[in-house]
Amino acid sequence: MTMEFSEHIKTANVDDVVLKLPLRPALKGTLCVTAHHLVFSERKEEGSYQLLLLLRSVDAIEKRMTGLSGSSGTIVIKCKDLRILQFDIPGMEECLNVASSIEALSSLESVTELYPFFHRPRELSLSEPWGLSSPQQQYAQTERLWDRWRLSKVNRNFSVCMSYPRTVIVPCAIDDITLAKAASFRQGGRFPVLCYYHRSNGMVIMRSSQPMTGANRKRCREDELLLQAAIDESEMGYIIDTRSAQQAQQARMAGGGFESKAFYHHWRRLHRHLERGKVLQESLIKLVEACGDPSQNMDRWLSKLENSKWLSHVHSALSTAGLVAECVERDGHSVLVHGFEGTDTTLLVTSLAQLILDPASRTFRGFLQLLEREWVQAGHPFRQRCAHSAHSHARLRQECPAFLLLLDATWQLGRQFPLALEFSEVLLLRLAQDAYASDYGTFLCSSEQERCALQVKENTHCLFQFLLRREEREKYVNPLYEATDLAIWPSVHPQSLQLWTGLFLRWTEYAQTMDEAREEIWTIVKERKETDRPKGCAHTTLSRHDSFTNVENLMDELTVL
Amino acid sequence: NKHVIRGKSGVEQVKLLDRFNNKTTTGTLYLTATHLIFVESNVPGAHEIWILHHHIASVEKLSLTTSGCPLLIQCRNFRVVHFVVPRERDCHDVYSSLLRLLRPVSYDELYAFSYNPKQNEQQREVGWQLIDLTAEFERLGLPCDQWQLSDVNRDYKVCETYPRDLYVPITASKPIIVGSSKFRSKGRFPVLTYFYQEKKAAVCRCSQPLSGFSARCLEDEHMLQAISKANHNSRFVYVMDTRPKLNALANRAAGKGYENEDNYSNIRFQFVGIENIHVMRASLQKLLEVVGTRSLSVNDYLLGLESSGWLRHIKAIVDAAIFLTKAVTVEGASVLVHCSDGWDRTAQVCALGALLMDPYYRTLKGFMVLIEKEWISFGHKFADRCDQLDGDPREVSPVFTQFLDCVWQLMEQFPQAFEFSEWFLIQLHEHVHSCQFGNFLGNSQRQREELQLKDRTYSLWAHLLSEQHNYLNPVYSPSFAERHPVLEPSTQPWNFKFWRNMYHQFDRTMHPRQSILKHTLTLKESNSKLEDTAHTLQAVSSYLLSSPLRCTNTPLQSLSSLHDSSPDAPDGNGGERTVEGSSATENGYGELQSSFSSKNEPAMVSLEFGVARMTC
What we know:
In chain A, about 40% of the residues lie in helices and about 15% in strands. Chain A is of the alpha+beta class. In chain A, strand 5 (about 60-65) and strand 6 (about 70-80) form a beta hairpin. Chain A starts with a helix and ends with a helix. Chain B is about 40% helix and about 15% strand. In chain B, helix 10 packs antiparallel against helix 11. Classes of the chains: A alpha+beta, B alpha+beta.
C-alpha cells in the first residue's frame, strides 16, 4: 500500500459490525478498509459470508449517529450498481473514520491510482493482448471497402482530433491535408469517419461532430469534399442530426451549426431530437428513486415511471437507430450521424443501428468489438460520464448515462429477438457495472490519447479479453442464440418497450423471485439438453434450440425475466 | 352458405388498414351466417381474417373518403379492423347486414346452437361430463363432520341464481337457510365454496344483507354463527365486503348494506374496496382507447395506463385475494366473501383466492373446475356481462376478463406454478364471448338447464382438453407446487403490468418477433408423447393457412386466433430481408421520403418530423 492510500485510512479494522444487505438477514462480522476495497467477513466458524466491495463503486455514503448519546454509528452505502448496503458500526470515532476513508478512497482523482492499475489476478498476464481489434484490422477484414475507402493515419499523434484513435477510415479521394482542414471545421476535430459498411449494398454509416458554421454560416470546402467523396455523384445521403432543428439553429450562436443544403447538395438532413447530458442523468436519478420506493401505490408508481422519462429516451434511441438502419438497408442511402460533440448520442445511434443491421455485431465477440470501436476507441468520455451514478449527491458535472441507455436499448432488442443475440442480459448487467467501477482498464479514461499517455494498456487488464475467456464467456452467453443474417427491426410501440427490471429492480424482492425462477428455468433447459443428448439421433441441434425457444418464449411472455 | 351481398358472393377491392401503421391490404369481404371473412387477394398463401359475429362489439360507418367508405369494427376479443369499401352501397349493405347479425335477441340465434364439430351424441355427452363439481367437493373432503350437502335448492326455489347442490354447516337447518336467504340480496345466502382441509377453514360466499340502517335477521346471524362454529381453529369468521365502504354505505339507503358487527357475534368485518362493474367497464374502455392510439408516445402511454386505473383495479383484486388467502391459510379462519349481489367481485376474489391456496387449480383441468364452480355454477351473469344477447349496455362489464388478467399477473410472478400458459387464458376469453360452446351461455345454471344446453350444444372443456398441447406451460413444475402449495405474490406496483398479449393479441407488430409458432413446434418436439398430436396440429395449421374458406363451421376456429396473433405468420413482402415479420415499414421510425426532389429546406421538413411522429 502506498503512502497516499494509507493516509486516507485512519481505522483499518472494526469488529462487531452489522451488515444489512438487501434481502438478506443481518450479518455480524469484521469490516476492513483497504486501499481499493471494503472487506466484510462474517464471524462464523463455517461457510461465513464475505463481501468484497470495490470502493470505486460507492456512489454515495450517508452516515448517522445512533445508539445512546451517539455511541455508535450507521453508514449507508449506495453503490453505482444501484445496490444499497448498511453497516452498523460500534463506536462513533470508528464510524466517522471509516466513512471518511470511504469518501476519500472512492473518489480518487488520479486514474493511475485506481484499482485496475493494481488488479493482478494470477490467471492473467499483462503481456496478453489488450483490446479486441483496431481500425486497421477492421479495414483489413472488409475487402470491399478497399476501392473506395482508405486508412488514414492523419491523427497518428492525436494532433488533428484529441478524441479519435490514431487511425480512421475515410474516403480514398480525400488526402490527409484535406482531412486536417475538414477537422478544423468540426467541433473537437471530429471530422466524418466511416463506422459501418453495409455489405449487401455498399452503403455506409459515418459519424462526426457538428460543423462549426457559426452565426455567419461559414463553410468549409474540404468538409464538403469529404462528404461528397463518401457517396457517388448520383447518390444521395442522409444526415441524421440528433438535435432538434431548433437546437441546431441555436448552436450557430455558439459557433456550432449544421450542414446547409446549399453547400451539401447531395445530403438531406433529418433532425431527431435525443436528450443528452444532464437531462438523461436526471432521468436516471428519477427512475432509480421511483424503483427504490416500495411504499407507493399503483398510480404513484406509474406516474413516477412516466415522470422519469427514461422509457421515452429508450424509445427515441431505438427509433432513431431504426431510422438510420432504414435509410441504409431499405432506401439504400449512406448516412452521417452527429449531434453536438459526436461523443454521446451519436455513438448511441450508430451502435444501435449496427446491432439492427449487422449480424456480426450480435455475436458475443462482435458486440464487444462494437463497444470497443464505437465507444472506447471512438472517444466516449467514460471518465466524466460515468463518474457518478444515480445516487450521488455530488453536483452534476458531466455525468450522463448514455452508455447505460445503449445497454438498455440492447436489452430491449434482446427481448424482442430472443434468439438473435449471442450474449445474454447477464453480460449487459456486467457491462453496466464495469462502466462505472471495474477491476479492468477498459472503461478508464475518455480517449485513446489519454489511455496512451497513462499507459493504460500496459498496466491494466482488458475487460473484453477477460470476458472472452472460455470459463467467463459461458456465464454470459445466450444459449438460445441462432445466428441470422437478417436485420432485426425492433418494435418501438410504447407497449413493446419494457422497464429493464433486471437492472433497475435488481436488488428488490421482485428481482430475487425472478432470479430464482430464471435459475430454475435454466436448470430445466440444461436438464432437457442433457436428456436430449443420449437420445441423440432424432434430435438435431436445431430441435434442441427449439426446445430452448420454448422456454425463452415463456420468459419472453413473462416480460420480466 | 355464404350470405349473398346484393347478388355478389363477396365485396371485392376492399382495403384493410392497419391501425398502427400505414400498411394496407386489399382483399375480398365475405359474409356468412356466422363469420365476416376477409381474404387477401392475389397472394399465394393469402392472409385471412375470420371474425365471428358474436365477437363484434360495434360496427361504425365513418364518413366517406376519396378511396371509399370506411367501416370500423371493434371486437370483444380486442381485434379492431378498419376496412375501406370502394362503393358506398356495398359498404352500407355490409353494415346493415352486420347490424342485423350481431345483435341476436334470442338464445336460439347463438352460434352454439348451430355449431357442429362432427361429434356424435355420445361424444357430446362425454364432453359435458368432463368437469364434475360433485367430485370436486369430494376432493375437498366434503361432506364432512362439519359441512353437509343441502338439498334446499334442489328446485332452485330458495335461490334461483345458485346451483342445486350447496354445502352448508351441519348446524344450519332448513329454516335458518331459508330465513337467511330472505335477508340476502337475490336470496344468495352464505354457502361454502372452498374448503382448506389443512385448517378446516372454509371460504363461503353470499350477497349483501338487506340490513338497511338497522334491520336484523336472526336466522342470518345464526347462519354466520354456524359457519364460525364449523371451524374449531378460529373463534371468529372474517366477513369480507369486497366493495369500497362508500358504496356499501350508499346501499343502506336502498335497504341493503353490510353486516353490523354488533349484531353478529364473532365476526371480523372488513371492507376491501374493489370498484363496481360500471367503474371497471369505463376503466377498460379508457385503457383500450389509450393503447389504441396511433403514434402513442411513451409518456402518453404511461399516463394513460395510470389514468385508466386498470392496473390499480387489478391490484385491488389481487390484494383482496391475498387477504383472503392469509386469513384462511395462516390464521386458519373461515371467511365469508360478498359484494352486492355476490356474483362479480365475490367470484373474482373467491376464485383468485382458491388459485393462491390450492395448486390443483393451477393445473389445466383444475382451472376448468375452478371456473365451472366459482363462475358458471354460482351464477356469474355471463350473458349480461359479455353482452351475449342484445341487452342493457349498463350490465356489460369485463369482470371475467379482469379475473384472467389477475391470473396472468400471477403467472408472471410464478412462471413455474401453472400447468397452462397465457394462451389458455386468451383462449378462454375468446370463448366466453364466442358463444360457440354452451358453457358460458346464459346467466345461471337454472337458465342453462332450461336452454337444454347439454343436449343442444357442445362443451368448451372437451374442446380445450382435446387441444391442450397448445396451452401447456413448458416450464410448469409440479415440484414447485409441492414447495409452494400456497402462493404469496408480491404486490409491489411494478409487479402489475399491462397484458400486451391479451389486449394487443391481433396487433402483431407489437410482439416479440421470434417466437410463437416455434413455441408450438417445440412443445411437440420436446415431449415425445405428444408427437402424434404434433402431426395433426401441423396438418391443421397448413390446412388453415391454405384453405380455411371451405370450413365455415370450423372446429378449428380457435386455432386460427393463435395464427392471427402469431408474429410468424408468413410475411407478405417476401423481398425484404428481415427477421420473421419484423419490418421497418411497420415500425415507422420516421417518414422517409423516397425521393429527394422535394424543394423544401430540410430544416423545415424536420420540424414536421417532430419526435412525436416517430412512432406510427
